[in-house]
Amino acid sequence: MKLGSLKNGRDGRLIVVSDDLAWFADAGHIVPTLQGALDEWERVEPLLKNLHTDLEHGAIPRMRFHERDAAAPLPRAYQWADGSAYVNHVALVRQARGAELPESFWHDPLMYQGGSDGFLGPRDPIPLRDEAWGCDLEAEVVVVTGDVPLGATREQALDAVRLVGLTNDVSLRNLIPGELAKGFGFFQSKPASAFSPVFVTPDALGERWQDGKLHGCLEVELNGQPFGRADAGEDMTFDFGTLIAHAAKTRALGAGTIIGSGTVSNRDTDGGPGKPVADGGLGYSCIAEVRMVETIQGGTAVTPFLRGGDRVAITMHDERHHPIFGTIEQEVVAG
Amino acid sequence: MKLGSLKNGRDGRLIVVSDDLAWFADAGHIVPTLQGALDEWERVEPLLKNLHTDLEHGAIPRMRFHERDAAAPLPRAYQWADGSAYVNHVALVRQARGAELPESFWHDPLMYQGGSDGFLGPRDPIPLRDEAWGCDLEAEVVVVTGDVPLGATREQALDAVRLVGLTNDVSLRNLIPGELAKGFGFFQSKPASAFSPVFVTPDALGERWQDGKLHGCLEVELNGQPFGRADAGEDMTFDFGTLIAHAAKTRALGAGTIIGSGTVSNRDTDGGPGKPVADGGLGYSCIAEVRMVETIQGGTAVTPFLRGGDRVAITMHDERHHPIFGTIEQEVVAG
Fold first, then answer.
1. Nearest to A185 among B127, B185, B250 (CB)
2. What is the interface pTM, i.e. ipTM, of the complex?
3. Where in this chain does the record put each Fumarylacetoacetase-like C-terminal domain (chains A, B) (predicted)?
């Protein structure tokens, strides 16, 4: 089942979307918002699934789904906690910052608390007040949980996964070193993230959802050119069950908690820094990584961070080359 | 005007509370929840104020207000961002951790993104899975904002302050050094915070709300003994306008954002480390601070962190010795 929110007020209007993303049916008679659905999932999920079946069978009135009308599936949320599960990415970014990677990073998940009071829709521009802040995209996988009890095991955590989706976790790279030096983590360096047009239940992902990971090529385009083709199921050191259990170690997590994978990143087959897609490599899911590789190879980062007018697209296709979650397509608007 | 939420489902039930905290009137016919009120404050505030006036005049049916029935005024929120505005506290805690205080901390506010998916009510126990985590209280002032535009000035930020209250920002001290060393800030070390029974509009605070600060003695009791008597209006290096503007530098803030002051802390009059209340000092708003002072004076911290059965109370009284925000009274439940 695929769920989305049409732009409407602060919390959107819940819709069920057809598997091919061509049609939707309003779910407002069941529950008005996705947060509302997550709040009483046990009661609401079977009703939404029936609606989805009717939609697929053409048994109810349906309307054309346009991704441009979609808000983030959760236009605001009570929690957004982002891991760094692809330790390869963390190692490269740290190297780029001249910071060391502690050995513990390979067995103790890194996670930060993100701002969740307002997210961008999949076609919303990225507002950037100052290009000198070094705006970057970060293509990631996310899951949305139900209630997770304090001290949940990995298995309990995986049972609580309700939905899977994609995000562009916008980062202001040039603000990060200063903030991290202060010791309290990211704040100003993490403006609003954008989410895919729809989130999908794990059962509808088939073999792509395995071992607490989403498997498939995460396609990232920068200004219309292929930029990233990493597989989200590869090199993910910590699966979502482990990430959620990490978050729930000292406190329960409320329904509607969004947990992020961190920037997807694959090791290069030859063990060296990743090659660009144009050179037959898997490319990058953020600009910081290609800048790192450029620095290693030529002494200087060449690819600039995002500037006004730059365009980013993030998607993942199924076997029939249909986007699973729809496509995040954003333009940076500076000033 | 004083607002609170009775325990009811995930978001509570909005009530207007009399100035003496003895009575309440249900506000459900205006708007069911406090978040709902904040979402459309311009429309709702005059209606709630009328209800408050009627309640004060005994012009409507009223019911006894019991603080034990109260949830946190916002039982969950879309954002909880906690500053460290009392740099005296930061300096002492850093000293206790053996970490240096950068000079920039005196002019660049420190702020972390906290978890906001579930808060404790003013009488809820503090759940503690492991006493070895070093559970501490932190008595703070908070404000709740309306919508704050991206890049808001301090003045715009102050205009957006809707409500003022108190919090116990529970911290797990022994988890902090490890988390901060990882560089991503607090996560497991910050379980759910508790909030005062009511939040109060700035206009109802009179001269106590001045220059973006709450003025008055923040009374903290530990196991029934006076523990802290610091004045929240003193030694606050960054006022709430500055804290909010800091948070809004790179992103807009959604209505219902809670901004915390950080642990309230006053310098001792003689310039040395603060004295306990029993010795005529202003005491402490967290245990870490007294442990720091003990270490300086005797080489070893003596006061233990919170253990099962320990009781914490946080309040602030007005001129007639009535609690302004009600009282946070919590017992630690270990295991």
1. B185
2. 0.96
3. 80-332
Per-residue CA distances from A305 to A177, A287, B188 (Å): 16, 6, 32
Q: Minimal CA–CA distance to B289: which of B216, B211, B235?
A: B235
Question: Residue A333 belongs to what H/E stretch?
Answer: strand A328-334
Cβ contact, residue pair B115, A81, below 8 Å:
yes
Q: How far apart are CA A139 and CA A220, in angstroms?
A: 7
Question: Which of A17, A38, A65 is the endpoint of a domain?
Answer: A65
Could you say which of B65, B88, B109 is where a domain stops? B65
Using one digit for the tens of pLDDT, what is the confidence trace for A283-299? 999 999 999 889 888 88
Give the pairing of strands B80-83 and B258-260.
parallel
Q: Which residues of B touch A133 (CB under 8 A)?
A: 250
Beta strands of B27-121 (E only): which ranges? 63-64, 70-71, 80-83, 111-114
User: What burial letters (b/e) apply to B279-297, b meaning 16+ CB within 10 Å?
Assistant: eebbbbbbbbbbbbbbeee
Contact A78 B76 (CB under 8 A): yes
Do A49 and A86 belong to one domain?
A: no
Question: CA–CA separation, A32 vs A327, rounded Å?
Answer: 24
Q: Does A42 lie in the same domain as A131?
A: no
- Chain B hits for A175, CB-CB cut-off 8 Å, are 250
Quickly count: other Cβ atoms within 10 Å of residue A257's Cβ.
Answer: 29
> B241-279: per-residue pLDDT in tens?
999 999 999 999 999 999 999 999 998 877 667 899 999
pLDDT in tens, A140-150: 999 999 999 99
* Domain carrying residue B233: 74-334
Distance of CA B179 to the CA centre of its chain: 23
What is the spatial distance between Cα B171 and Cα B190, in angstroms, rounded to a whole number? 5
Q: Find the angle CA(B90)-CA(B95)-CA(B96) to the nearest 5 degrees.
A: 100
Regarding whether A203 and A85 lie in a shared domain, the answer is yes
Q: What is the largest CA-CA distance in chain A?
A: 61
Q: What is the DSSP string of B152-179?
A: --HHHHHHTEEEEEEEE--EEGGGHHHH
Residue with tokens 């500055």: B242
Helix and strand totals (H; E) in chain A:
7, 21
* Pair B112, B228 in one domain: yes
Chain A residues touching B186 at Cβ < 8 A: 113, 184-185
Query: What H or E segment, with its residue span, contains residue B199?
Result: strand B199-200
